[in-house]
Write a structure and sequence with these properties.
single chain; 358 residues; mainly alpha; 16 helices; 0% strand
Length: 358
């Protein structure tokens, strides 16, 4: 594992610098046309992928500096940061586009990454203490996957994260289509796009609040294992009714408090439960992974889990898009079933022995 030899800090610095460069390339591509623009965009994304280890290493960094009993709460702060990014990112990008043109979003993103890099250079200290740990065996990528998945609880947690991400991605990719169809907003219309944006922001606010606030108390009361199971069951329960909620009219305060507001209230309640469920999955799962994994293997194990999530984000849209074309309810009902079954498996298999504390 790279961080076992070089430490967390250098990898984070390289990743942040790479992000700044990749977004600068994206901004440059925005001013080009035709094949040159496409080639530059692809190069920017490839470069970003090569330098994109920051999330995994950040989680390993937090595990290094946090006592085991507080890791889930600290992992929740990463989730909260993601949620806030999804909330404020689109408006900032819109303002940048308005004032700086096509290259604006890329320029601002690159500048923010550069500021991150500078702050990390002067503030971030090295968390990795090689004297305190034995070096992890270095394995080829496929062998590392096999090694991680062979560990009973750790492997199960990786599979659970894959399935949880898969279900959320199916929802994420189809929500706009469901809203456009079920509320008669039309496909690719301004109303449909703006409403979908508002709903994603609504979900992001709730998710950020859950991961940044009550999750610490919930972990103390329930434990990571039960919380993971409950979060998945909540996700499944909220996914099932979503494609069957029908109404009419663009979401607005006046509509919400009119006779036609009932379906929108139902949808908002369903999305709130979904946001709570998905918001409660990631922090305890990664907190538990970090507790169950030796310190010298945390980077590799958390990296495998993140890779599993990336695979889910590849296959989820393919799955949801093909089934949505057949019937809008199929991906939602399928993912609801997957989430509930996964939650029940997590409740049964992740639960410690009766004599152990949860």
């Amino acid at each position: 594992m790279l961080t076992s030899n070089t430490g967390r800090r250098p990898v984070l610095l390289i990743s942040l610098a790479g992000s700044a460069i990749s977004y600068a390339m994206f901004a440059l591509a925005s001013g080009m046309e035709g094949r040159a623009a496409l080639g530059m965009i692809l190069a920017a994304r490839v470069f970003a992928g090569i330098c994109g280890a920051n999330i995994t290493v950040a989680q390993a960094y937090i595990a290094d500096i946090t006592p085991p009993e507080q890791r889930t709460k600290r992992m929740g702060l990463i989730g909260m940061a993601f949620g806030l990014g999804f909330i404020f990112g689109p408006p900032i990008g819109g303002i940048a586009f308005k004032h700086l043109g096509d290259a604006g979003p890329g320029i601002v993103a690159s500048a923010l990454c550069a500021v991150n890099f500078i702050l990390a250079v002067f503030i971030l200290t090295e968390s990795w203490k090689p004297d305190a740990h034995t070096d992890a065996a270095r394995r080829p990528r496929l062998e590392q996957w096999k090694h991680t998945l062979r560990q009973p609880t750790v492997g199960l947690l990786v599979i659970i994260f894959f399935l949880a991400t898969f279900c959320f991605t199916c929802f994420e990719i189809t929500l706009g289509l469901v809203i456009a169809n079920n509320f008669k907003l039309g496909f690719k219309t301004t109303d449909a796009i703006s409403v979908a944006g508002m709903l994603f922001m609504y979900c992001g606010i709730i998710g950020a609040f859950v991961q940044g606030g009550p999750i610490g108390k919930l972990v103390k009361k329930l434990g990571e294992r039960k919380l993971i199971a409950i979060s998945l069951i909540l996700t499944g329960i909220s996914l099932a009714p979503m494609p069957f909620i029908h109404g009419e009219g663009k979401l607005s305060w006046s509509l919400l408090f009119s006779n036609q507001g009932g379906p929108w209230w139902m949808l908002l309640l369903t999305l709130a439960v979904l946001s709570i469920g998905t918001g409660l999955t990631r922090p305890p799962l990664f907190g538990l992974l970090s507790v169950l994994t030796p310190a010298d293997q945390q980077g590799a194990t958390l990296g495998i889990a993140q890779s599993a999530g990336s695979l889910a984000r590849i296959f989820g849209p393919m799955f949801a898009g093909s089934l949505f074309a057949a019937h809008a309810a199929i991906p939602y009902l399928t993912c609801a079933l997957i989430a509930v079954v996964t939650g029940l498996v997590a409740w049964a298999k992740l639960r410690p022995p009766a004599s152990a504390a949860s």
